């Protein structure tokens, strides 16, 4: 019986994974390799039903950059509070719908005009969390002065000429310096560093991901220690 069980276990282990298990394994490997850096999943990845299920079950952050992305995310059952909406990809009416009607978790705003639009549609029973993709002083002030808006972090995409392995750690240092300046000017401590770009996609292997996560963490440690800034959460966009 023991021999039979052992042979059965060995042969079963050699069988190829099902599509569902393969998708779950891929997602789990990405998140585990990057940890403690968080992964923001692009909405288009949810077209794979198995990835969508894994994202729902594990509460992953999902980025939406267009109305098509939004339809995909909502259609696969992602809770609106897990969505990060990039305002540049939406019309004014669509952005109002995302914030006031859906109650999405975060909006990445890239202009003072987008911030003012969020202020105009703010609802009394909730506060809208905002991540700024613009470094302008007036954009920061617009969020901080806006009723029922909370500035929680900064978003940047690295230049196309840099890959994520060099660009992400460098950008982390730059953003911590910007966040320290916001604290100095406004007495507000931001808690999210958000980075995208640099060809960062699902072809990146687990060893490279682990190396990237460690490089980001080392830069974060150094920048926060130098500027006496509380460690924020770092999120990267795939």
Automatic annotation (TrEMBL):
Domain Orn/DAP/Arg decarboxylase 2 N-terminal: 24-124
Pfam families per the UniProt record, alphabetical: Orn_Arg_deC_N (PF02784)
Protein name as it appears in the record: LysA protein
Organism, as annotated: Mycolicibacterium nivoides
Classification of source organism: Bacteria, Bacillati, Actinomycetota, Actinomycetes, Mycobacteriales
């Amino acid at each position: 019986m023991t021999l039979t069980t052992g042979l059965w276990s060995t042969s079963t282990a050699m069988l190829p994974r099902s599509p569902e298990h393969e998708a779950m394994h891929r997602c789990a490997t990405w998140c585990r390799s990057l940890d403690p850096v968080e992964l923001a999943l692009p909405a288009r990845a949810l077209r794979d039903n198995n990835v969508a299920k894994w994202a729902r079950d594990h509460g992953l952050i999902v980025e939406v950059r267009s109305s098509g992305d939004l339809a995909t995310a909502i259609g696969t059952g992602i809770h609106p509070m897990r969505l990060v909406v990039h305002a540049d990809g939406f019309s004014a009416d669509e952005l109002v719908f995302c914030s006031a009607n859906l109650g999405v978790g975060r909006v990445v705003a890239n202009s003072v005009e987008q911030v003012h639009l969020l202020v105009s549609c703010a609802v009394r029973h909730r506060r809208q969390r905002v991540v700024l993709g613009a470094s302008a002083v007036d954009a920061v002030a617009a969020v901080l002065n806006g009723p029922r808006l909370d500035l929680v972090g900064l978003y940047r995409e690295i230049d196309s000429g840099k890959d994520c392995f060099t660009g992400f750690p460098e950008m982390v240092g730059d953003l911590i310096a910007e966040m320290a300046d916001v604290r100095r000017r406004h007495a507000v401590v931001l808690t999210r560093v958000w980075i995208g770009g640099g060809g960062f996609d699902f072809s990146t292997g687990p060893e490279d991901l682990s190396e990237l996560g460690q490089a980001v963490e080392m830069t974060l440690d150094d920048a926060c220690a130098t500027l006496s800034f509380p460690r924020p959460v770092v999120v990267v966009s795939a």
